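#struct-help
A.M.: can someone run this one for me? Single chain, 453 residues.
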Amino acid sequence: MDTDKLDRDERRAYRIFIASLAAILLILFTGIFLGFAIRNTTLVQDIILERAKSLFQQIVLTRRWAAEYGGVYVRKGPGVVSNPWLEHPDLQAADRSMLTLRNPALITREISEIAARGNDYRFRITSLKPINPGNRADDFERRSLEEFERGASERWEFVDGSAGREFRYMGALKTEESCLACHATRGYNVGDIRGGISVSFSVGEIERRLRQNVVLIVVAAVAISALTIGIVVAFALRLRKKLNHLRAELARAATTDPLTGLHNRRFMLERFVQETRKALRTGGELSCAILDADDFKSVNDQDGHAAGDLALQKIAVAMTASARAYDIVSRYGGEEFAIIFPGIDEQAALKGCDRIRLAIARETAAAMPRGRAVTVSIGVAGLRSALAASGRAGIQPAGDARGAAAEDGANRYIDLLLRNADTALYTAKAAGKNRSTVYEATQTNMDDMADCH
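D.P.: on it. Structure tokens below:
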């Protein structure tokens, strides 16, 4: 019962271990791949922001170049009109062609229109006090300009525009000396924030690919996590199987005699306790026998210890083959062996022992050098006879069908049965060896029985 409980507890602990390990690996891989996804998204956003800043700087440099020259004159032609917000924007060249002035603001607008036609990006200059009403700020630009007045120098956000998903960036423009020619009337001084340049470009395709990349990362995370967990679980199962095998081997080694392959004395005594308790509890029969190889020293002396080991092995083979499947056959020590016969009395056990004795002689004769048969002498004792003898001696039997008496009585009667079997063994030896003898209680044995209670 305890073994079953331990086995259940072990299986439960193993399941908890596997589940915990799988959860830890899943959390670990989820964290790692989530970090990759976040890092990848942040990196792409940083690249987008750097592109917007680069475009802004290019526009600022272009405007600064134009402002330092006071603007740029271009030849008037079809589609080229004068700037209505400038005083005297036109002049006549020496070749009598007409030129018109393009100030930095108009240069910025016309370059933005060219960029927008290529569906690349667009930008424009604006302020909270524009000279040209066409440069009035939209909502994003107005919020950005208001933050600039509070000390900010740039602002950006992702928005859903008319062309789809867009990234909008706006940088502040500070008033320079060259700007006062147009903007001094608006109350600006050098260093004042007089407006800003907003840059917009589409990021729909970038975000679509970014989402695809995140999906691929998630799929990879799930696949790698599942594969890793599967490998770990398979390894754990294999390890547990190997541990169970090693445990079984250790248990077998702890209960098995290495030379003969029979159960050892420790195992035999544990089973003897179980069978005796059962017999005391149910009133069933139980017998035991001790076997000893006759003249075994001469085998070692004349044929060598290897022949002695072979003889012991063949005795074990014959005992196992001739005993019943549920008889408990063991090596008791040296050249002694023991058999527990559950469910039968000493007379039935005696017949079984004679069968085993003859089988041992045949088995060893066929295997030993010079065809020398190794015989055994056997002493047999029965539990019911011991109980009856103790009752005739006026001793109350230890144990009944209930309670701890049967448990305690088992250990006392095992000692009694083994002594009785050992006594019968010496009787067989004294009677000429190669025979089986049953122990018969006499008055001289009653003191021994009393000592067991």
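A.M.: thanks! Confidence is low (pLDDT under 50) at residues 392-405, 443-453.
D.P.: also worth noting: The chain has two domains: 2-68+103-208, 265-451.
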